[in-house]
Amino acid sequence: MTTAVPATLDGVQALADLLTDGGALVLSGAGLSTDSGIPDYRGVTGSLRRHTPMTYQTFTRYPRGRHRYWARSHVGWRQIATASPNAGHRAVAALQRVGAVGEVITQNVDGLHQAGGARDVVELHGGLDRTVCLGCGDVADRAALDVRLRAANPGFRPDAADEVNPDGDVELPDEALDGFVMVDCLACGGGPLKPDVVFFGETVPRDRVDHCFGLVDQARSLVVLGSSLTVMSGYRFVIAAAKRGIPVGIVNSGPTRGDGKASVRIDAPLGAVLPELARRLA
Ligand SMILES: [Zn+2]
To answer: How far is the CA of 145 from the centre of ligand 1 (A)?
Structure first.
C-alpha cells in the first residue's frame, strides 16, 4: 500500500493532493524543531546515545535527581526560551489559515508551533513553558521560575554548557550541580516543582489521549511531520487512523515506524518540503 515517494516535487504534489480537501490532522515531532536549533535525540544526529533523559521515576522518587535536573534545566532553559520558529512551523500555520490543516498534535515541548502562528495545538507531552507542583498541582509560568532561580543562584554560570537536549536538559559536572539552589512552589509554600512535560516512564494524561483520538476520528487525513514514531504515545494515532481508513502522509528525514501505514511518504527535510507544500495549497 505504501507509495515510497522520493524527495521530489512529485512527492510534494502527492502530499498536496492528500491535503486538498482540507481538515488534515498534523502530528509533529522533534524533527520539525531541529532547524530551530533544538536537537532531535532520536534522529540521525541525535544525542540519546550520550544522554539518558530524565525519567519520571527518578524525578519523583529522588530529591537529588530532581535537584540535578533543575540545575541542568536552569542552564538549558535559555536556549529553549530563545529558540525561534522555523520555516516548517510557519508553513504549518499557513496551511491552517487556508484550511488544509485543522488541529495540530505535537510531541514537542518547545512551544514553537504556537510561536510560529499555529492555533489549536495539543501539546501531547506538555510544555516547558510551564511548571506543575507535585504537592498541590498548581500550574505556573516557567519564565517566572527563571527569575526566581536567577535570584537564588547569583553565582551560578548558566552559560557554562553548550550541549542542550530537547527537553531543555544539559550536561554539567557534579561540582556545578551541587552548588545550585532550587526553589519550591509559591502556591503551597514548599511543594516540589516539575516541568509540565511528560517524562520518559510517565503516561500522558488519559483525557488528553482521548481528546487526540477524537481528533483522529474527525480528521480527513493524518500527516506526520518530523517524527520517527518510535514512541507509542504518538504512533498509536497512526495505527488508529490506518484502522479507520483515514489516509496517512509522513514527511521525515529517515525511516519511521509508520512507513508501512502511509499512502504518501516523503523522506526529506521538512524545511524544504513544507514551505513548498504551503505555496501549492495557498
Ligand atoms: Zn504547590
So the answer is: 13
pTM assigned to the model: 0.89
Report pLDDT digits (tens) over 141-165.
999 999 999 999 988 765 555 556 6
- DSSP β-bridge partners for residue 195: 131
Please write the tens of the pLDDT for every residue from 66-101: 998 898 888 888 888 899 999 999 999 999 999 999
Q: How far is CA 69 from the centre of its chain?
A: 19
Catalytic residue, candidates 74, 89, 113, 125: 125
Which runs of consecutive H residues, i.e. helices, occur in 52-111?
56-61, 63-82, 87-97
CA 134 to ligand 1 center in whole angstroms? 7
CA of 110 to the centre of ligand 1 (A): 23
Q: Is 125 a catalytic residue?
A: yes
Distance 16 CA to ligand 1 centre (A): 47
Tell me which residue of 267, 164, 261, 260 sits closest to 225, measured CA to CA: 267
Average pLDDT in the 130-148 region? 96
Residue type, 174: D
> Mutual orientation of helices 87-97 and 270-281 as an angle, nearest 10°?
20
Distance CA 150, CA 128 (A): 17
14 membership: H or E segment, kind and range: helix 9-19
Residue with cell 516539575: 194
Question: Which pLDDT tens digit goes with each residue over 174-212?
Answer: 677 778 999 999 999 999 999 999 998 899 999 999 999
Q: Which of 264, 242, 233 is nearest to 108 (CA)?
A: 233
